Amino acid sequence: MSTLAAVLAQGTARLKEAHIDQPQLDARLLLQAACNLTRSELLLREQEPVAVDQLLIFESLINRRCAREPVARILGEREFWGLPFKLSAATLEPRPDSETLIEAVLAARPDRSAALRILDLGTGTGCLLGALLHEYKHAQGCAVDLSPQAAQTAQANLTALGLADRAQVLVGSWFEPASGVFDVIISNPPYLRDIELQEVEPEVARFDPTLALTAGPDGLEAYRAIVAAAPAYLADGGVLVLELGRGQGPDVSQLAQAAGLLVKEIREDLGGIGRALVLVKS
């Protein structure tokens, strides 16, 4: 019977042959899931044998990863801002780059005790609103998504995090179901050009929902809709924070300025890409 260490090495080799980035990390995460072990438990028990049923589960998970299904989708969960978020077929997988938006809001609104009203457009898993409500303990939030399944996923995640009493999840297009004014509006909208869907990695093209990825021939359709309507929903001095695709800062800034919003900053992510556009209603 193979040991945990031997099985991990075999899984790593298979992922390497399939040209998967970080094959050892992915194999380890999948082995931990198959054997219901933490990382430290796996290290301590690496010379112990793997049960046949666990080996079969692991092989199934490795097959899925070789087919380019992302590890987070296989496991059904992804961490964002140190918090766990369940995934569904209708949601994007939360990514570290999007944490730049949370950093931007915290910089623009440093008072963590403020009773902010926060609106999250295209919420998906609810990760942006969940992270902000976690930081602002007295804030109230509203999350909107066009997909009923995504809205259901967001509601389940916010409930699991103990935030449901301060969050409302609505189904609709952008601002349509929202009412009132907000101190903070945040969004990671679709921003790929339609043609770019043919160019992205298989993990995205095959497993992320197209509705949450593409935004017309120039990738700007969602931005146009959001910035045109945002001034009516922002309180005076309110902040709108938008996630940007690579190189989109100038175009989206121009759209925002035309709508009467002030460009405060474009905050870069860890890769040096302008990721979070911070706009203010003056």
What is the name of the CATH architecture of the largest domain?
Answer: 3-Layer(aba) Sandwich
Output the radius of gyration: 21 Å
- Overall geometry comes to elongated
The ordered H/E elements are HHHHHEEHEHEHEEHHEHEE
Corresponding CATH superfamily of the largest domain:
Vaccinia Virus protein VP39
Amino-to-carboxy terminus distance: 68 Å
Q: Tell me roughly what share of residues is in helical segments.
A: 25-40%
What structural class is derived from the secondary structure elements? alpha/beta
Number of H- or I-type helical stretches: 11
Beta-strand residue fraction: 15-25%
Number of strands: 9
Mind describing the biggest β-sheet? 7 strands, mixed
CATH topology of the largest domain: Rossmann fold
The quaternary structure here is single chain
The stretches of 5 or more residues where confidence is low (pLDDT under 50) are none
Mean pLDDT: 97
Compute the number of structural domains: 2
Q: Describe the strand arrangement of the main beta sheet, using strand numbers.
A: 5-4-3-6-7-9-8
CATH structural class of the largest domain: Alpha Beta
